[in-house]
Amino acid sequence: MAETKKDKFYSNREIYEMLMAEKDERIKLTQELALTREYVKKYNGYREKTDLHDERLDELEKIVYGETEKQKGKFAVGEAITRWGGWIFGLIATGILIAQLF
After folding, report:
1. Given CA atoms 44, 45, 49, 52 in this order, what sign does their dihedral have?
2. Which residue from 18, 27, 97, 102 has the least number of CB within 10 angstroms?
3. Looking at the domain assignment, is residue 1 inside a domain?
């Protein structure tokens, strides 16, 4: 049997059913997009919090590193006094003795 021109087209009912199915798909897609937007907003909020925490950690590391370096410096000065204090005292005492002789 030969196809007629009328057989090649969809019926009104078929077109209506296709449009309704497409409408349902658009509704699902809209819901998924809304959910995706919500997730993106949450992610951006978490990202901002993470950035703030990173900045705070950097500041704390600088403080701790500075205190550590200060302690190292104090220790180095103490070590230098301990090592060279006797020599310095000896030189000063020798200088005073020489000054008293002349």
Report:
1. positive
2. 102
3. no
Does 19 map to a domain? yes
Structural domains counted in the chain: 1
Enter the pTM of the model.
Answer: 0.42
Q: What CA–CA distances, in Å, run from 96 to 51, 87, 100?
A: 63, 14, 6
pLDDT along the chain (102 residues), means of 10: 61 89 92 94 89 90 82 82 86 91 81
Domain of 16, in residue numbers: 10-75
The H or E element that residue 14 is part of is: helix 12-101
Q: Is residue 81 part of a domain?
A: no
On whether the CB atoms of residues 9 and 17 are closer than 8 A, the answer is no
- Asked whether 26 and 34 are in contact (CB, 8 A), the reply is no
What single letter denotes the amino acid at residue 3?
A: E
